[in-house]
Amino acid sequence: MTRKAPRDVETMAELRAQIDAIDRALLALLAERQGHVDRAAELKRAEGISAAAPGRVAEVLARVRERAAAAGMDADIAQAMWRVMIEGFIAREERVLGKDGTDA
């Protein structure tokens, strides 16, 4: 399916199909991101690094706000979405590393 600008979509059925296509693309990217998170957990285990990195999280969230605003997206929504995503991936890393987040 060819993606269209929102203003070029004429029916709700077409609009929903466009959103579904975007959702598929987002899921593929999130699956790819998860692969990198899994690798990060392996490297953190080898290097004795904890799963949580508050400074890195703050850096990512600030960058997301900036990039969202530049892209014309509501920065509050983008930041909230990234916060939930990051929390989920940190929890995934902690399961790999063990309850204390450093080693199983």
From TrEMBL:
Residues 6-97 form the Chorismate mutase domain. Its EC number is 5.4.99.5. It comes from the Bacteria. One of its GO terms (biological process) is salicylic acid biosynthetic process. Keywords: Isomerase. The keyword Isomerase applies. SMART domains: CM_2 (SM00830). Coiled coil: none annotated. InterPro entries: Chorismate_II_sf, Chorismate_mutase-related, CM_dom_sf, CM_II_prokaryot. GO terms for molecular function: chorismate mutase activity. This is chorismate mutase.
